[in-house]
Amino acid sequence: MSEIVTIEPPQDRPVTLEEARQQLRLDTHDEDMLLAIHLDAAQAELEWLADLRVCPQTLAMVLDAWPDEITVPVRPVTIAAITYTATSGATVSLPEADYVARARHGFMRIRPAAGKSWPELAPDGQITITLSAGFAEDHPNLEISRAAVLVKTASLFENREGASCLAFDTLVNQLAARWV
Residues 131, 137, 139, 144: what is their CA dihedral angle, to the nearest 10 degrees? Predict the structure, then answer.
């Protein structure tokens, strides 16, 4: 069983209030609080539906045991560190040479390097994988994510009773991981 926790939350939104105001053609700041709530809701829905983290942030994935292969259930990520509780009770860093991390089918997979095996854990030990998550500024999916947040925010703002948004659904489908 694994759990993902946020260590350092994102510092910014992928879409600013000003960009959302332009999308909606709003000239005043009267409804900024509502607009901010809709921006956050749109981003959260996008991230949940597409297993994404749009903005740069630091996460930790905590495991109770070593599986044969670890699949990180969010993307995009890079591995910052892997630590575990050794049989001595000490927290130990796993050297990068002891594991291989590769993105397959959109998700990061981690397994022992050739000729290596996972180290033994203490009886109540844990594995903590520290992850750098979020799109780089030049990643093409960042712009698709921004467009999805914008159209969903506009839909939430203009259709306050909760109408569906086909443009958002289409953009989410473009970002969804493809399992082959």
Answer: 110
Residues 131-180 have pLDDT tens digits of 999 999 999 999 999 999 999 999 999 988 778 899 999 999 999 876 54
User: Which strands sit side by side in the sheet containing 70-71, from one edge to the other?
Assistant: 70-71, 107-112, 99-104
CA angle 178/169/27 to nearest 5° reads 135
Cα–Cα distance between 41 and 37 in angstroms, integer?
6
Alpha carbon 170 to chain centroid, angstroms: 19
Helix (H) or strand (E) holding 93: strand 91-93
pLDDT value for 180: 42
Q: Copy the structure tokens of residue 82.
A: 């892997």
pTM: 0.88
pLDDT confidence of residue 108: 95
Query: d(Cα 92, Cα 127) in Å, to the nearest integer?
Result: 10
**Order of all β-strands in the sheet with 127-133:** 2-8, 57-63, 127-133, 77-85, 91-93
